[in-house]
Amino acid sequence: MIGADQWSLHYKSIPEKLQRMYNDGYKLVILTNESNIERHKNKRQQAVDSKVGRLDNFIECVKAPIQVFIACGLGKGKDIPDDPYHKPNPGMWWLMAQHFNSGIEIDMDQ
């Protein structure tokens, strides 16, 4: 899907629920796989700008700060190692938790 405006909410209640969670003290984080950016070899920057634009527009819709991590992938092939940051691997989560959470320990019981 190319274009900053090429997105929609599946549920209209999402912005309100995320705003409520933020107001209740939760940190909002998006972890997203975007290995399809690799498909756009000649238009890679356009694909990246499109994705960032869609995320910016979503965050603007939610009206709450959201931290975003994007795994673009290492590509595919027999000599390419498994990407530790690409979901379902937990690399993006651990990166956020250990280096981009202002030293705040995450309460996994919540």
UniProtKB/TrEMBL annotation:
User: According to the lineage, what is the superkingdom?
Assistant: Eukaryota
Pfam families recorded: PNK3P
Matching InterPro entries:
HAD-like_sf, HAD-SF_hydro_IIIA, HAD_sf, PNK3P
Read off the NCBIfam families from this record. Answer: HAD-SF-IIIA
User: Could you tell me which PANTHER family the record lists for this protein?
Assistant: BIFUNCTIONAL POLYNUCLEOTIDE PHOSPHATASE/KINASE (PTHR12083), BIFUNCTIONAL POLYNUCLEOTIDE PHOSPHATASE_KINASE (PTHR12083:SF9)
> What is the name of the protein in this document?
Uncharacterized protein
Source species of the chain: Sorghum bicolor (Sorghum)
Its lineage opens with: Eukaryota, Viridiplantae, Streptophyta, Embryophyta, Tracheophyta
